[in-house]
């Protein structure tokens, strides 16, 4: 990983690392594949997490830990989508909106998890120099990926909330390419949200009797 952590180029007085650039390109590709409901979204997200883990490890331990969780959830997402897509006509998962109970559970888990992780980071300062934003991104990423794994449209909303903190934090920490990519994420999230929203509405309509599948 030493060569990947070397400088690739300078952009707007920001030093871009190879690992930062390559990892985020894979992350961007994973988001596009998720928008297309492709099962390959998960291996690509796993690879992105692996590369970014190497980029953050030893400098931003909290962010490195987030990438370890990303890899674990990517494995779960791969398993979940393989199971769920077998019941669809086109071989892809059918997006749906979460129930109010699921929304409440995810919101509660996000709030409690952010507080718990932030307190952990504050108790061990070596894990993060900015505990609350790191904890917010850490937990928000897990919640977003879990919602994606379950095929919930809300996963796009969760990513938007993560981006609101992730963009300035990446620029502040010198990971400029991550910041630029997160801006692109924002645009893709809006398009993906619209696509999944429309698909969830079509998928929830009952088939007419005698109509072709």
UniProtKB/TrEMBL annotation:
Q: Where does the protein end up?
A: Cell membrane
Instruction: Please report the record's description of how this protein sits within the membrane.
Output: Multi-pass membrane protein
Principal location: membrane
Looking at the UniProt entry, the stretches that span the membrane are 15-34, 46-79, 104-123, 135-162, 174-193
Q: What UniProt keywords are attached to this protein's entry?
A: Cell membrane, Membrane, Transmembrane, Transmembrane helix, Transport
Record-stated family:
Belongs to the nicotinamide ribonucleoside (NR) uptake permease (TC 4.B.1) family.
Under which name does UniProt file this protein? Nicotinamide mononucleotide transporter family protein
Q: What organism is recorded for this protein?
A: Streptomyces phaeoluteigriseus
């Amino acid at each position: 990983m030493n060569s990947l952590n070397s400088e690739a180029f300078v952009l707007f007085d920001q030093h871009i690392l190879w690992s930062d650039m390559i990892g985020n390109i894979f992350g961007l590709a994973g988001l596009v594949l998720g928008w297309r409901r492709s099962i390959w979204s998960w291996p690509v997200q796993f690879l992105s997490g692996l590369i970014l883990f190497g980029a953050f490890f030893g400098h931003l331990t909290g962010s490195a830990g987030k990438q370890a969780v990303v890899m674990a959830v990517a494995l779960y997402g791969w398993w979940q989508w393989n199971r769920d897509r077998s019941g669809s006509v086109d071989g892809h998962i059918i997006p749906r909106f979460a129930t109010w109970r699921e929304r409440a559970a995810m919101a509660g888990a996000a709030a409690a998890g952010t507080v718990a992780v932030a307190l952990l980071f504050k108790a061990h300062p070596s894990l993060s120099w900015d505990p609350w934003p790191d904890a917010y991104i850490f937990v928000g990423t897990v919640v977003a990926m879990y919602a994606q794994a379950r095929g919930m449209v809300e996963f796009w909303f969760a990513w938007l909330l993560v981006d609101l903190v992730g963009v300035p934090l990446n620029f502040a920490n010198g990971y400029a390419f991550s910041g630029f990519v997160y801006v692109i994420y924002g645009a893709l999230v809006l398009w993906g949200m619209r696509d999944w929203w429309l698909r969830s509405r079509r998928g929830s309509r009952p088939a007419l009797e005698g109509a072709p599948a």
